[in-house]
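Could you please review the protein record set out just below?
***
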Amino acid sequence: MSTVVLLLVTGLGLGALYFLVASGLSLIYGLMGVLNFAHGVFLSLGAFIGWEVARRLDPSTWTGFLLAMVIGALAGAAVAALTELLLIRPLYNRHIEQVLVTVGLGLVGVALFEGFWGTDAIFISGPAWMAQTTEIAGARIPNNRFLAIAVAAAVLAALVLFLKHTRYGLIIRAGVENRSMVTALGIDVRRSFTLVFSIGGAAAGLGGVLASQYYGYVSAHLGQTLLIFAFIVTVIGGLGSLGGAAVAAVLVAIPQQLANYYLNGVGDLVAVLALAVVLLVRPSGLMGAKAA
């Protein structure tokens, strides 16, 4: 029983990381129709910048760690905004070029990270509480899993409040539903594009700091690794659906953890098979709008 509890809570922690990346992907595609293959760069950058900030202050203190989370999120948001302004905006409605540019940026980002921070993983530490465990039903759960879950829940709540109770949130939701109608009403939807990219980049950068604590290291390939599963989560949940991304993150991560433990490490295969089943049965995703 304790093993099952450990796997379930650890799966929720992993799902939290998937959601932090997938939420940005879902919002960006829902409003802008852009599949951003460079999204993993924002995560890796947030992880590296957060680590640099923490180690210069004191990684064992909460002050250093919390500031690392803030700076990591801001770094992700800043690079995401520049990406939208300089690379994506000139290529709207040119989907092949968008894919090529974002894939190229992803490859360049990894190369730059390797050139600056090296090709080997850098093992890190955090506040002492993060390395400790909490016992639940006989299972010793690493505390960093609880932090990831709490932050992801807070981000989900903040995004829902932003989308439902702010002017820009209303524009974004309306743009997701019918961009041409919003434009016909005299609202320049493009002004919100940069904001959406920034929000997605901030969530990814924040996820990068948490992922570095979850895995215990930072690496140039950390973002690209999580990006693969974030895309799976985004498609399963439904492109453009924030709630779908949250549900799918849990539905992907928990079976992945269980399969890795009980089926000798085939969790990644289970995630891919789940994607295949959803695409065959419900191509629009669990909570995505069905195509007319």
User: Anything to note?
Assistant: The two ends are 46 Å apart (CA to CA).
